[in-house]
């Protein structure tokens, strides 16, 4: 685990502990004890140093901003997304330097950040299949297996909270869309039929990925595939697809950028297979955005639809009691838009509201504590591919096929 990964993990576990501390009672105390116990058991020296640095930084920040505890949901969400985007940018830079030095025949000064394997859904899905069906773990991209597993588990409890609170690609997409609006003002919304056609794209992509993961590789052939040169070089093949542009990859990238700049959350709504996957499992989640019709201003005769107008996914929140929609990312924008005097919206179950700090804490539980346990207890995170093998794979990369 590299320094950037360790710092990000330490920051995430700190956010988990802080979110739990916002609620009082014995369940919270028990949860905090479990978090501390997990850290004591699974963290190594690098992670302890990273945690110390994060705690010192948070202490200095709190001294400069003594009212930080009153952070709104918007500030929490945007702060989390931008910090993770910064982490991903540093990881990308580190990975590119690693590959550049590897390609020159040098011993890389920076280690390979294994979190890049989170962008390998096929490798993660096949690794999860091999683990579940054969008890065989993937030694080359274990972080991909862990990433697919924890994101799926998070969706079962928190729906698409990862999309609304953590995904760095969503932040980049919003920046590109905002830049387009500066040069070409206006919010463009496609007609319903075109919106349906465009949304079908991500389901086609997800269906293609699931076909490869579930059907294309027989169970008996999984160990052989996981040991193949193509699988070992999957991360480098993915990078080459975007950085060594061909006509096909250039057209794909251009289409992604076009949808992203044209429509608000264009990539998330129309192309992201992870969003589609999390949306499916999110339908099983007991937590969702809920509206109390007794408190809603519409019950008092007001024609209020501020919640629906604030929703980036264009969901008619003011017309439903509980939002059951594949596009909902639990971002809380509708809750923030609801007039304070009404307080008619909340995220949670029928009987319990989930605050923004607790939502962030639960998300961090999946995104950071579970990978920590996988790394510390199961040794499932760091790739075991030897450096010499990786250098050879990089040399023959263009010739590698399925």
From TrEMBL:
Localization, UniProt: Cell membrane
InterPro entries from the UniProt entry: 4Fe4S_Fe-S-bd, 4Fe4S_Fe_S_CS, NosR_regulator
GO molecular function, one term: iron-sulfur cluster binding
One family name in Pfam for this protein: Fer4_10
Residue ranges the record marks as coiled coil: none
Residue spans crossing the bilayer: 29-61, 82-100, 148-172, 203-226, 238-261, 360-378
GO CC field: plasma membrane
Domain 4Fe-4S ferredoxin-type: from-to ranges: 319-350
Main location (coarse class): membrane
Keywords noted in UniProt: Cell membrane, Iron, Iron-sulfur, Membrane, Metal-binding, Transmembrane, Transmembrane helix
Protein name as annotated: 4Fe-4S ferredoxin
Source organism of this protein record: Aeromonas diversa CDC 2478-85
